[in-house]
Design goal:
Number of domains: 1
Number of helices: 7
Structural class: alpha/beta
Radius of gyration: 17 Å
Strand content: 15-25%
Number of strands: 9
Order of helices and strands: HHHEHEHEEHEEEHEE
Length: 248
C-alpha cells in the first residue's frame, strides 16, 4: 500500500474516530491536535521504496511513542498491524484515560504502556518493525539517551520535532550549526514540558551520533525565519531514519 493510499485512509479514519470520541466524552477532554494529519506530511516525506510503508514494517509490531489519545496507533491497528502505545499518564493530556476509553470502545487488542521517557526506561519489546516518534522529542529532557535507546530496538523510526533557524531575538542564525536551544519553562506555548529545540544541523548531528541514518528528510511550516518559541516561528522537521546499531 502506497503512502498516498495510507494517508487517504488515515484522514477518513480520523473523521470516524472524532465522532466516536464525541460519543464518549466532551471535546475538551480529548487531545486537541490531530495526530493523523501527520500522514499529510509523511506523504510528502517518503520517497522510493519507503513509500510502501507497510512493506518497511513487515510483520513486526509497531510502537507509537507519545501517542496522546492513540489515534495513530488505532489507525495502524485498523490496517492489520499489531501496535503498542507508549505514553506517560503524568504528562498525557487526559492522563491516558482517552486511550483506554477508545481501546475499550473499539474492542482493540493493542497494548497501552505508561512509561516515563525521562527515566532510564526500557521498552516493552526487544524488537519493533517501526517506531512512530512524532512531536515528542522536544518534550524530553534527555533526547540523546532516548534516541540512542530506540536505535537498539527497531530498524526504522519516523520522527518529527520542532526545529529553528534563528535565536529568539532573531539576531543570530544558527541553522547550520549543530546546536539546540534550551527553552525557559513557559517560553514556548506556555508549556513547561518543552525543552530542546534543535537547529537543522543539530538534529542531523544528534541522529548520526545516536546510531541513525537519515533516509528521507523534510521541514514544514516556517522554513525561512523560524525560531524556538513563537507560534509564527514554528518549523517542523520530519524524517525517516534507519538504525545502524539494531540487531534483530
Amino acid at each position: 500500500m502506497d503512502i498516498t493510499e495510507i494517508k487517504d485512509k488515515a484522514l477518513l479514519y480520523n473523521a470516524t474516530l472524532n465522532k466516536i470520541k464525541l460519543s464518549l466524552a466532551p471535546q475538551s477532554f480529548w487531545y486537541p491536535y490531530g495526530a493523523l494529519n501527520n500522514f499529510i506530511h509523511l506523504n510528502k516525506l517518503l520517497t522510493g521504496s519507503n513509500r510502501h510503508l507497510l512493506d518497511v514494517i513487515g510483520k513486526k509490531t509497531v510502537v507509537d511513542i507519545g501517542s496522546a489519545d492513540g489515534d495513530l496507533a488505532f489507525f495502524m491497528e485498523s490496517l492489520g498491524l499489531k501496535v503498542d502505545i507508549i505514553d506517560h499518564a503524568h504528562t498525557n493530556y487526559n492522563h491516558l484515560e482517552g486511550a483506554h476509553l477508545l481501546r475499550k470502545d473499539l474492542k482493540s487488542s493493542l497494548e497501552i504502556y505508561d512509561i516515563d521517557l525521562d527515566s532510564q526506561f526500557s521498552l516493552p519489546q526487544k524488537e519493533y518493525g517501526l517506531i512512530f516518534f512524532l512531536g515528542i522529542l522536544y518534550h524530553l529532557k534527555n533526547p540523546f539517551y532516548i534516541l540512542e535507546n530506540l536505535s537498539k530496538h527497531s530498524s526504522y523510526c519516523l520522527i518529527s520535532t520542532r526545529v529553528a533557524r534563528l535565536c529568539p531575538n532573531k539576531q543570530v542564525n544558527f541553522s547550520t550549526v549543530p546546536v539546540a536551544y534550551l527553552l525557559d519553562s513557559y517560553e514556548c506555548n506556555n508549556d513547561p514540558t518543552n525543552f530542546w529545540i534543535f537547529s537543522d544541523a543539530g538534529l542531523r548531528r544528534i541522529l548520526q551520533r545516536t546510531g541513525w541514518e537519515i533516509c528521507d528528510y523534510i521541514t514544514v511550516g516556517n522554513t525561512t525565519d523560524s525560531d524556538p518559541a513563537t507560534p509564527q516561528g514554528d518549523e517542523r522537521a520530519f524524517c525517516l531514519v534507519k538504525s545502524s546499531t539494531f540487531t534483530p
